[in-house]
C-alpha cells in the first residue's frame, strides 16, 4: 500500500506478510524492507507484531512517567556521560547536534540544544548497567509492563534482522547472533514549544542525528514532526516529513552499527524532530506536547562493530575498523554531553 510523504512515495510494509504469509509474500516483504531501508535509510512498517493495546499502554505509561514530580524523576536520574543511559534525562541533557557533528567532523555549532526529556531502560539481565526504576508509589505497574514491552520489542527486532539476512542473502543468524542484552528502550517527551523558538535556530525538538545501534524501531502515536534526510535530493539538505498513517505504524531506521557492519551498503538514516508540516510556514502558534517510544536494537557489547567479513570490499577492503560495540558507543556518547 503506497502512501504519500511529500512528493516521495515510501511504501508501507505489512510485516505480518513475513511472520504469517506464504513463501512468496515472505520473500516480497523482505525485499520491500531492504529496498526501503537501503534507498531512504528508513521504512514504514505496519502489523509489526506488537499488539496495538500494548503500544497504547506504553504511551499511557510514558504520559504518566513524564508527569511525575521533578523529585521522583530526579531520584532515578541518568548520570550524564558515556556509559549506557539508564533512567531519566532532563530537558536538553543529551545534545544530538554534537553527536552528529563529531561523526561528520564539522565544527560544533554552540548552544544547539534539544527540547526533549527522556527515559532509558536496558535489558533486565544487565547487571553491569542496571535499570533505575521509579517507585511503585510514583507510578503503579510501570516496571512489569516496561519489562514485558522490552521483551516484545527484542523479539520483533530479531525477526526484522532475520528478514534482512534473507533479503541480503547472508548466512542465517549473521546479524541476529550479534545481538544480546545491550539493546535499549527509550521514551521521549517533547514539551509544547512556540513555533518561533524552533524557527529561531538554537533549539530543536531533536537535531539531525544518526542512532548508534543496529536498527531503531520507533512509534510516535500518529504525531508528526519526524523527518528523514531526503537522499534523492542531490545536495542532501532537504528532509522528508514522516506523518504516520496510523498511531501503530512503526518507523524503522538503519543506525550506525549496521552501516559499519555492511561497509556502507545500508547507510544509516539521518533524522530529526522539528516543526510539523502544517506549521512550517507559520510565524505564531504553539506546537503541542509530543511523545515517542524508540527501541534501539544494539550489538552485543563485546561484538565488533567493524565491517563484517561478508561485506569487505574485494579491492578497497573494510571501511570500518574492529572495535567493540561498547567502546564504540562510549566514544560516540561522550560527544553528546
Ligand atoms: O521522537 C522521535 O520521533 C524520534 C526520536 C529519536 O530520534 C531518538 O530518540 O533517537
Ligand atoms: Fe533518533
TrEMBL record:
Signal peptide: none annotated. Coiled coil: none annotated. Gene3D superfamilies: B-lactam Antibiotic, Isopenicillin N Synthase, Chain (2.60.120.330). GO terms for molecular function: metal ion binding; oxidoreductase activity. The keyword tRNA processing does not apply. The keyword Iron applies. Residues 181-299 form the Fe2OG dioxygenase domain. Keywords: Iron, Metal-binding, Oxidoreductase. GO terms for biological process: small molecule biosynthetic process. Belongs to the iron/ascorbate-dependent oxidoreductase family. This is Fe2OG dioxygenase domain-containing protein. The lineage of its organism: Eukaryota, Fungi, Dikarya, Ascomycota, Pezizomycotina.
Amino acid at each position: 500500500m503506497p502512501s504519500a510523504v511529500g512528493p516521495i512515495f515510501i511504501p508501507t510494509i505489512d510485516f505480518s506478510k513475513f511472520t504469517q504469509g506464504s513463501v512468496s509474500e515472505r520473500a516480497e516483504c523482505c525485499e520491500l524492507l531492504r529496498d526501503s531501508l537501503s534507498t531512504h535509510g528508513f521504512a514504514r512498517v505496519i502489523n509489526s507484531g506488537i499488539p496495538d493495546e500494548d503500544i497504547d499502554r506504553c504511551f499511557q505509561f510514558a504520559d504518566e512517567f513524564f508527569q511525575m514530580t521533578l523529585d521522583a524523576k530526579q531520584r532515578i536520574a541518568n548520570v550524564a556521560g558515556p556509559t549506557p543511559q539508564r533512567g531519566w534525562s532532563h530537558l536538553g541533557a543529551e545534545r544530538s547536534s554534537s553527536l552528529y557533528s563529531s561523526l561528520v567532523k564539522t565544527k560544533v555549532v554552540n548552544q544547539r540544544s534539544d527540547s526533549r526529556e527522556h527515559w532509558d531502560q536496558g535489558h533486565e539481565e544487565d547487571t553491569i548497567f542496571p535499570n533505575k526504576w521509579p517507585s511503585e508509589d510514583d507510578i503503579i505497574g510501570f516496571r512489569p509492563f516496561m519489562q514485558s514491552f522490552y521483551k516484545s520489542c527484542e523479539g520483533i527486532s530479531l525477526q526484522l534482522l532475520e528478514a534482512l539476512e534473507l533479503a541480503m542473502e547472508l548466512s542465517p543468524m549473521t546479524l541476529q547472533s550479534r545481538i544480546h542484552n545491550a539493546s535499549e528502550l527509550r521514551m521521549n517527551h517533547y514539551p509544547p514549544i512556540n513555533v518561533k523558538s524552533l524557527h529561531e535556530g538554537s533549539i530543536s525538538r531533536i537535531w539531525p542525528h544518526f542512532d548508534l545501534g543496529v536498527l531503531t524501531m520507533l512509534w510516535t502515536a500518529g504525531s508528526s514532526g519526524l523527518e528523514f534526510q531526503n537522499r534523492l535530493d542531490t545536495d542532501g539538505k532537504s528532509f522528508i516529513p514522516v506523518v504516520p498513517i496510523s498511531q501503530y505504524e512503526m518507523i524503522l531506521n538503519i543506525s550506525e552499527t549496521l552501516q559499519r557492519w555492511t561497509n556502507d551498503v545500508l547507510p544509516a538514516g539521518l533524522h530529526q524532530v522539528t516543526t510539523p508540516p502544517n506549521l512550517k510556514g507559520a510565524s505564531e502558534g504553539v506546537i503541542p506536547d509530543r511523545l515517542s517510544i524508540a527501541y534501539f536494537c544494539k550489538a552485543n557489547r563485546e561484538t565488533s562493530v567493524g565491517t563484517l567479513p561478508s561485506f569487505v570490499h574485494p579491492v578497497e577492503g573494510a571501511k570500518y575498523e574492529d572495535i567493540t560495540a561498547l567502546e564504540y558507543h562510549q566514544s560516540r556518547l561522550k560527544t553528546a554531553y
